[in-house]
Automatic annotation (TrEMBL):
<protein>
    <recommendedName>
        <fullName>DUF1795 domain-containing protein</fullName>
    </recommendedName>
</protein>
């Protein structure tokens, strides 16, 4: 059993199948206190859900590592994502795009945007963390616009918790 130290000093355990591929690839992270990990059908990633709030809308995080056929910088990936969202998403408004480095020295590109999802004003963010020349770790988060301030602080804390072990892959 893999044990993860959660935000606020609470320890959370998860069954190995949920994050086995991420852990084997050297990706570690801290699950926010009281949030739960779930498998995501058809994906090697892990979805992390906040406790349900009034109105039944849950905020979530999603993390996975994917390979690419050609190298792509975080900025190029986020520019393409922003263009796709602008073309296909109701009420799309880019709020922030930047590069950063977390406390573990992991470099990331971050896109934060507003849109309307199922008639609910929402805030989402996408982060891309270069892993190797041909793979990245992707992190997505979503919450309602009404709870964005509270949840975005947790999303940034999660992003700051991600550590990547050195990789031998190209």
């Amino acid at each position: 059993m893999l044990t993860l130290l959660a935000v606020g000093g609470v320890t959370v355990s998860c069954a190995p199948p949920l994050d086995e591929k991420l852990r084997a690839a050297g990706v570690s992270f801290t699950v926010p206190a009281n949030w739960t990990e779930q498998s995501f059908p058809g994906s090697s990633g892990v979805q992390i859900m906040c406790p349900p709030i009034a109105g039944g809308y849950d905020a979530y995080l999603f993390i996975e590592q994917l390979s690419r056929t050609e190298p792509q910088s975080p900025d190029d990936y986020l520019a393409n994502l922003s263009n796709r969202r602008k073309a296909n998403t109701v009420g799309y408004e880019e709020r922030r795009r930047r590069e950063g480095r977390n406390v573990h020295g992991v470099v990331y590109g971050l896109l934060e945007y507003f849109h309307v999802l199922n008639r609910i004003p929402s805030v989402e963010w996408a982060a891309v963390l270069p892993r190797t020349r041909l793979s990245n770790v992707y992190v997505y988060g979503c919450t309602t616009a009404a709870t964005a301030e509270r949840h975005l602080a947790i999303f940034y804390e999660f992003l700051n918790s991600i550590a990547l072990a050195p990789s031998q892959a190209p």
